[in-house]
Specification:
With about 140 residues, the protein is α+β, with helices and mostly antiparallel strands. The protein has helices spanning about 1-15, 35-50, 80-85, 105-115; strands spanning about 20-25, 55-65, 70-75, 120-125, 130-140.
């Protein structure tokens, strides 16, 4: 699935001279709705491309521990303004600092809805001027 996301952005990465890097064990799997999960991840990766510049990186990493599968999307772009951090998952929220970028403010709310409907959580960590990390976590159901 992450390979499909990579393909989707390969051309854009080349055009914008940004590096898209994937890391993860190919044997890790996640029981999910394939198309919706790709939609969620692509919305987050699209934001990463929207808020990085030439020479920047976008990383997609996935890993599995005993009870959790995580997908981590990280960039070393502009970062998110602290005043925006608590609002970015709200529908139609657009930062006053992003008025120059196109968008309607639905990408992250949709991603959150998709992740949560898979019983997952979505967390953001961002440092202004340094970059942003989104972490999607899914509990692996334990067998009874
Ligand atoms: N990786 C990121 N780096 C910096 N800012 C981000 C990043 N991801 C999200 N944001 C901020 O969060 C806001 C909300 O993102 P969201 O994807 O919901 O809407 P949008 O990208 O503005 O519009 P849409 O996705 O509907 O086209 C963005 O406008 C931007 O200000
Ligand atoms: Mg978006």
């Amino acid at each position: 699935m992450m390979g499909e996301v990579e393909l989707h952005f390969a051309y854009r990465a080349g055009q914008e001279e940004k590096e898209l890097v994937l890391t993860g064990d190919e044997h890790i799997s996640l029981l999910c709705d394939h198309d919706w999960m790709i939609e969620a991840v692509e919305n987050i990766v699209k934001n990463a491309f929207d808020h990085t510049e030439k020479g920047n990186f976008v990383w997609i990493e996935w890993k599995k521990s005993a009870s959790v599968v995580q997908i981590i999307i990280k960039d070393n772009g502009s970062g998110i303004q602290p005043e925006d951090l608590h609002h970015i998952f709200k529908r139609f929220y657009r930062s006053r600092f992003s008025k120059d970028k196109q968008g309607i403010g639905l990408g992250l709310p949709l991603a959150k809805m998709i992740v949560e409907s898979h019983n997952g959580t979505i967390e953001v960590d961002s440092t202004l001027g340094a970059g942003t990390t989104f972490t999607l976590s899914f509990l692996i159901p334990t067998k009874l």
